[in-house]
């Protein structure tokens, strides 16, 4: 029998403040509803207890600076670890799909982390995906982010990775946090087209969402041929959500899940605590379990005006054309410390809205026809002025890129106060602070 796994981690003792939209009640009502409706007792449902991720898993994917020990990560490590409980169950064939109903969320947390942004410090899906690749030999993963906010952190983690397809469909960044996720963001020099952004006008509902899925997202996913599909299942597209302006219903979310058929759904945002979350969570869960979700009806009716029909189809066709016609224009740069090869230079500024500061980042990506290419990031926290470097040797790195990574690490161990070497090829992580290696296994 096809089993559906479920794990709850409501993080009762973690909050950004009692009146903050991202608070523990987000999962309390859902949990009650799912138990009351007897869904947990369905024969195909298997409930798991939460787990804890370790810093090694985190740092193979995200560089938490200046050291992870300087951050309060307890709740975040359980949100990641609980999601990973389901990915492990999936790999052990105990379940065929699952839903991690965890908080805090994670999709705004990127490749380098100096604090909390968009309520996220660690990226649950990204860490889980790289764990599947390092521990279970999974090669290609598609992540479909259906949260109303652009999944900018997930995009950032995999921007230079040709083996992870990141698709985010969200409310237009000109009208909503984090202000990114436009069609020109399509991946780095070795991973161009592995990032897809579909920014929607405010007011789109089930009809528009399902149309975009059928005509753009799902064809792109089947072309990519992933081994695994992950859904970042944010629920703030609901017509009652207080932070956004979209028009989806709980049943619409059930249908979205039905169409994506994710191996794992991981909860992201969704802030309409009583009016939407229990219903959406239930619809998603019933869809995963192969049950009828057509009777899941929320107490309120949509009041926002909806953009659908021909207007939406014309809008989406224009967006798709803009996306398809874009060509990258890379800037090459030489620096004395860069090993042989062509290095593409990018700059980035990251705003940490929760903690209210900015990070500036310079990136160098080794252009390579044989692998994802070694990446160097030099980053600075503009509140504390601390600097740090990240060197990443990618999964399936070629010999030249691997050596380039060691050469860069040798240089930056001395040149910067803090250096993280993410060696995804050899499944190793080394963090140096002032030339001394920092253990990731003591707190
Ligand atoms: Zn969101
Ligand atoms: Zn290479």
H/E element sequence: EHEHEHEEHEHEEHEHEHHEEEEEHEEE
Query: Total number of helical segments?
Result: 10
Domain unit count: 2
Strand order of the largest sheet: 2-1-4-10-9-6-7-8
How far apart the termini lie comes to 42 Å
CATH superfamily of the largest domain: Histone deacetylase domain
Largest sheet: 8 strands, parallel
Low-confidence stretches: none
List the quaternary state of the chains: single chain
User: What percentage of the residues does DSSP assign to strands (E)?
Assistant: 15-25%
Give descriptors for this structure:
single chain, 443 residues, alpha/beta, Arginase, Chain A, eight-stranded mixed β-sheet, 18 strands, 29% helix, 23% strand, binds zinc ion
What is the structure about, briefly put?
By secondary structure, this protein is α/β, with parallel strands linked by helices.
What does this structure look like?
- It is a single chain.
- It contains ten helices and 18 strands.
- The protein is an alpha/beta fold.
- The chain folds into two domains: 4-325, Arginase, Chain A (3-Layer(aba) Sandwich), CATH 3.40.800.20; 331-438.
- The radius of gyration is 21 Å and the shape is globular.
- The protein starts with a strand and ends in a 5-residue tail after the last strand.
- Bound molecules: zinc ion (ZN) (2 copies).
- One zinc ion (ZN) binds next to loops.
């Amino acid at each position: 029998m096809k089993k559906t796994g479920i794990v709850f981690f409501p993080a009762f003792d973690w909050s950004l403040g009692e009146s903050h939209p991202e608070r523990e009640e987000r999962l309390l009502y859902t949990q009650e509803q799912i138990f009351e409706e007897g869904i947990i007792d369905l024969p195909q449902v298997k409930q798991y207890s939460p787990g804890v991720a370790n810093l090694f898993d985190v740092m193979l994917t995200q560089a938490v600076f200046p050291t992870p020990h300087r951050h309060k990560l307890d709740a975040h490590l359980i949100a990641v670890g609980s999601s990973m409980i389901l990915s492990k169950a999936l790999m052990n064939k105990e379940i065929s799909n699952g839903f991690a109903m965890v908080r805090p969320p994670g999709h705004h947390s990127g490749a380098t982390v100096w604090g909390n942004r968009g309520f996220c410090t660690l990226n649950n899906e990204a860490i889980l995906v790289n764990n599947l690749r390092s521990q279970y030999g999974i090669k290609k993963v598609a992540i479909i982010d259906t949260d109303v906010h652009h999944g900018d952190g997930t995009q950032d983690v995999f921007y230079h990775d040709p083996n992870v397809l990141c698709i985010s469909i969200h409310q237009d960044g000109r009208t909503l946090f984090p202000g990114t996720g436009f069609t020109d963001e399509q991946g780095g020099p070795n991973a161009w087209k592995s990032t897809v952004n579909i920014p929607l006008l405010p007011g789109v509902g089930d009809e528009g969402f399902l149309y975009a899925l059928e005509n753009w997202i799902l064809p792109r996913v089947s072309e990519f041929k992933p081994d695994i599909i992950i859904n970042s299942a944010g629920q703030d597209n609901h017509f009652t959500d207080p932070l956004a302006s979209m028009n989806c219903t709980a049943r619409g979310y059930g249908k979205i899940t039905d169409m994506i058929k994710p191996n794992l759904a991981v909860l992201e945002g969704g802030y309409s605590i009583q009016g939407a979350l229990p219903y959406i969570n239930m619809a998603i869960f019933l869809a995963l379990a192969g049950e009828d979700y057509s009777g899941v009806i929320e107490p309120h009716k949509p009041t926002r005006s909806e953009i659908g029909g021909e207007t939406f189809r014309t809008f989406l066709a224009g967006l798709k054309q803009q996306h398809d016609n874009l060509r990258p224009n890379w800037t090459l740069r030489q620096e004395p410390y860069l090993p042989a090869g062509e290095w593409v230079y990018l700059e980035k500024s990251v705003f940490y809205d929760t903690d209210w500061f900015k990070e500036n980042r310079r990136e160098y990506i080794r252009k390579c026809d044989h692998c994802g290419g070694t990446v160097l990031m030099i980053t600075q926290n503009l509140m504390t002025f601390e600097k740090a470097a990240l060197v990443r040797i990618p999964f399936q790195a070629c010999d030249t890129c691997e050596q380039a990574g060691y050469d860069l690490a040798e240089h930056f161990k001395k040149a910067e106060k803090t250096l993280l070497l993410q060696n995804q090829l050899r499944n190793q992580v080394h963090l140096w602070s002032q030339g001394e290696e920092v253990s990731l296994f003591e707190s």
